[in-house]
Amino acid sequence: MDDASVLLLESTPERSGALARRIRSLGGYRPLAAKSPEQALRLVEEPHLGVRSVLLSPDFPFTDPERALTRMRSLCGTRRLRFIATGVRPGADTLARLRAAGTELALWEPYDDARLRFQINRSLAAPEQESVRREQRAPTDWRARVRGGGREKEALVYSVSPGGAFLATPRPSMRGAQVCIELPLPAGSLSLEGRVLYTNVPGNLRRSDLPIGMGVVFDTPSPEAERELRFTVAQTLLMLVV
After folding, report:
1. 68-83 as b/e, with b when 16 or more CB fall inside 10 Å?
2. pLDDT averaged per 10 residues in sequence order, the chain, 242 residues
3. Could you tell me if 7 and 55 are in contact, meaning their C-beta atoms sit under 8 angstroms apart?
4. Percentages helix, strand, coil for the chain, rounded to the nearest 5?
5. Of 21, 104, 148, 184, which sees the most CB atoms within 10 A?
6. Is the dihedral of CA 128, 164, 235, 56 positive or negative?
């Protein structure tokens, strides 16, 4: 699969370079940094680049952000272009201007690589992909304990939903394996039984938009556990929108 082009509109070349290196290290994405509004328009217009995701600093030197972002969308033709506001969370006036310009998603500092990957994937997702997803999910930086097959290991919870989680680990369990996951939720530790639905491992079938690891579906969590998961997901997602 070709790397997805992600356009960076940062306030300084140093910030562009640092962000580009982070994105490149994730794999699966090709960061393109624009130094000026004119270059941003040219990069978006290039059909062979196929830009659909833009990381936008509120300090990027657009004279009229709303007009500029509208122009960028018009140059995409049938491609959907989505913007992610980045940097330090600005004040209410700047947030209002970003919303007026059609910027929906946010990555306010500090953010980890899980949130960076999650938001880029979210911006690249087709509308039909969003509509078929049964449950809302959110990125996390939790360290979970996973038990199964007589062994215990640590995994990074890349994302979680009320019905399951994706666990980043270099040693995923086999598909179909039963596991017990100890999730360190903000309100307290939660132990859930689950089953490995799929794995993402090195090879021809590896998904470049996910880390190495495994997707786990929970085995009928209790109503209390489900409520806690839903609340945690909702609270996390609130911090990822403008």
Report:
1. bbebbbebeeeeebbb
2. 88 95 95 96 94 96 93 92 95 93 94 95 79 76 92 94 96 95 91 96 88 95 93 95 94
3. yes
4. 30, 35, 35
5. 148
6. negative
Distance in angstroms (rounded) separating the CA atoms of residues 2 and 75: 22
- What is the pTM for the complete model shown? 0.89
Tokens of 76: 């995409």
Separation CA 27–CA 117 (nearest Å): 10
Please tell me the distance from the alpha carbon of residue 7 to that of residue 122, in angstroms, as a whole number: 15
Angle between helices 13-26 and 113-124 (to 10 degrees): 80
In angstroms, the CA 15 to CA 83 distance is 17
**pLDDT tens, residue by residue, 19-60:** 999 999 999 999 999 999 999 999 999 999 999 999 999 999
Reduced to 3 states, what is the DSSP secondary structure of residue 27? Answer: coil
Residue type for position 165: A
Sort strands 29-33 and 82-87 into parallel, antiparallel or unpaired. unpaired
Query: What's the token pair of residue 165?
Result: 């989680």
